[in-house]
Design brief:
Strand content: over 45%
Structural class: alpha+beta
Order of helices and strands: HHEEEEEE
Number of strands: 6
Strand order of the largest sheet: 1-2-3-4-5-6
Largest sheet: 6 strands, antiparallel
Distance between the termini: 75 Å
Length: about 110
């Protein structure tokens, strides 16, 4: 009797794990979670190809409700950083040069 119950429960767990949850379901669930998120932070790498030149960037993105965001792009070859910031006052693009900063309101 114990063996029959054990086989029965094992079969149920095996069949439950083989459901029809596919790639489209994963993308749909992920998209819904991103749309419902109040804030998120993402880091990644960007490869930009311009004719024969290839540029590599480290990218950091922070987002907060009401479309506030901060994007940081750092060129890995020369360590040059550019920051795009959006808040209540507008959109700012900040480029760090040797000791000088430039702000631009769009």
């Amino acid at each position: 009797m114990k063996k029959v119950l054990l086989v029965f429960f094992f079969s149920i767990f095996l069949l439950a794990g083989c459901g029809k949850y596919g790639e489209d379901d994963v993308v749909s669930d992920f998209s819904k979670k991103v749309e419902d998120a109040k804030a998120y932070y993402v880091e990644g790498k960007l490869e930009l190809v311009n004719n024969d030149d290839v540029y590599h960037y480290d990218v950091k993105v922070a987002f907060k409700e009401k479309n506030f965001y901060r994007v940081s792009l750092t060129n890995t070859s020369n360590n040059h950083t550019q920051v795009i910031l959006k808040n209540d006052d507008g959109v700012y693009v900040q480029t760090h040069e040797s000791t000088q900063q430039k702000n631009l309101i769009v």
